[in-house]
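so i finally got all the pieces together for this one. its two components total, 269 residues if u count the protein bits. some of the lines might not be protein, just check the labels. i wanna see the whole assembly predicted at once instead of chain by chain like last time, that was a mess tbh
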Amino acid sequence: MVLFEFVFYMFAVVVIVSAMGVVFSKKMMYSAFSLLFTFFGMAGLYVLLNADFVAVTQIMVYVGGILVLIVFGVMLTTKITGVEVKSGMIGKFQLTVGAIVATCVAIFLSVMYMNVDWMTSKMNIEVSSTTGFIGFGLFTEYLLAFFVAAILLLIAFIGAAKIARRK
Amino acid sequence: MEIGLNHYLIVSALLFSLGVFGIVTRKNAILVLMGLELILNSANLNFIAFAKFGGLNIEGHIAVLFVIVLAAAEVAVALAIILNIYQNYHHIDVDEINKMKE
């Protein structure tokens, strides 16, 4: 059990530290690459939570798709003139207000999570793989939502291609 | 100490507040998008944690899959809009963008 705790804290530290890198770093490319480590750490946490299929989906969609899109966005929206790719912060006052709001949100959520008596199930179910159950659920109970999501994805990508095309 | 539900929930709360901080304080539209991704990831972590500690029901996993699909669609459309804004304004400062078209 000690190994499990060690791995959990490792992934948690990776997620939080690289998320701080995303938020605080001055250069946009560093933010993008910190986001990569955040996504990988999240995949590790999913594996610890017995969610193997979701972990692999996280890596494939977030790292393979969304992060590549974001890096392309960073490259396409910066002038290639030798100027540092800076991501400006706003003034001191707004920064202070933002920090106060974020800290309040963190403290409020943490206190709430600690004080609520969650109804957790005591039985310890061991499953080797969740993929079969997810597939069964998607094609029986969630069939309509599955198809709606597929059509929405198609429409969104066609729309994105239409919007982004040069006139 | 055994790793329980609260550990995951606190990681997710920290991730959420970092995402809020990023959205509130950054001027660059792509960095606002990154903060949004952090918030979506924290929501996903909550879903998976409750799915596991609520007896490993599969509904949480399916909700997370739909959230991932929507995040992909959202990022694609948002980046297309940001590229258009860049063509019109030659910067993507969300503070200074105040016209829908020129």
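The first helix of chain B runs from residue 5 to 25.
Chain B is about 75% helix and 0% strand.
anyway lmk what u think
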